[in-house]
Amino acid sequence: MPRRHTPHRNASRIAGLALIACSTAAGGASVAQPAVAQPSQDAARAEENGPNAQREDPTPALVARPVLEWSAVAAGGALWFTTGTLLKSDIAPSACRWCDGNAFDDELRSLRWSDTRAADLTSDVISYGVAPVSAGALVAIAAASSGRACELSVDLPILAEAVVAAGLLGEGLRFSTGRERPSVRALPPEEKPMTDHPEENNLSFVSGHAATSFALAVSSGMIATMRRRRLAPVVWAAGLTLAAATSYLRIASDEHYTTDVLGGAALGAAVGLAVPLLHRPRGERAPAVVIGPAPGGATVLLVFR
User: Fold this and answer.
1) Between 152-177 and 208-226, two packed helices, what is the crossing angle to 10 degrees?
2) pLDDT per position in the chain (305 positions), as tens?
3) Which end of the chain is more exposed for a tag (fewer CB within 10 A), N or C?
4) Residue closest to 145 by CA, chosen among 53, 216, 74
């Protein structure tokens, strides 16, 4: 005879099932509890270090061997000084190889100052003093503001390499092309050997001041950009402003034609771009060049990924 379920047993069974259900729900809640979002250690560390803290990147943007880089800078600088100062009178062309002018350069000689010596001196002060100090200081400030001052041991020799490379290449071009300076070309033939520095009469192309100034501006800007410094726009703006001012003053001093300055600027910019890129880690993707339309021309962007 089948057992009959009394109301009391049914109630007990229902109560047991309810208790199991409640226990299961409570257990599920206790298991799910750890999934609640908690601040990560990285976020806590970033908050503790402040807004200037930079995220750690296992792959550095630039790599170099500081001792090797500074040795190369010293050797290149010694060669530059030797050819540009000690041996200049021996290796500089005594007669111009490129003697004729052109309508473009002749027209823009109107930019020269009445006091050409003042323009020459000012360009020397900016190119050999203000621009290098400004570039080095801004690279250092940009690194320090991002909490990465330790990376200056790599950044500064790369900056110096770009300047020395541009200086040497510009020196080689001046000696090989032998272009007569505009101020010398304007003189009667009998007065040309009587200039203050006759060994420099035929060293017009390219402008060394423009080459080194633009190498400084572009290499410092590239370093700041590749390192993703917050102050990178400031580094670019200051460097390019000083380089443009130096280039204009070389025309105002009547020491160079406009094409000499443009050639020097192109050379310096190319070196300033190439040297930091040559110090990227092996296997890193190259930056992409993006060309887009712009009113009256085109826009060229260098995109780092």
Assistant:
1) 150
2) 444 444 444 444 444 444 333 343 334 433 333 333 344 444 444 444 444 444 445 457 899 899 999 999 999 999 999 999 999 999 999 999 999 999 999 999 999 999 999 999 999 999 999 999 999 999 999 999 999 999 999 999 999 999 999 999 999 999 999 999 999 999 999 999 999 999 999 999 999 999 999 999 999 999 999 999 999 999 999 999 999 999 999 999 999 999 999 999 999 999 999 999 999 997 655 555 556 566 665 565 555 55
3) N
4) 53
User: What 3-state DSSP class applies to 184?
Assistant: helix
CATH number, span 66-303: 1.20.144
CB 109 within 8 A of CB 196: no
- H or E stretch at 109: none
Cα gap 302→291, rounded to integer Å: 9
Indicate the domain borders of the chain: 66-303
* pTM for the full predicted model: 0.76
Task: Determine if the peptide bond prior to 206 is cis (ω within 30°).
Answer: yes
Q: Which amino acid is at 118?
A: A
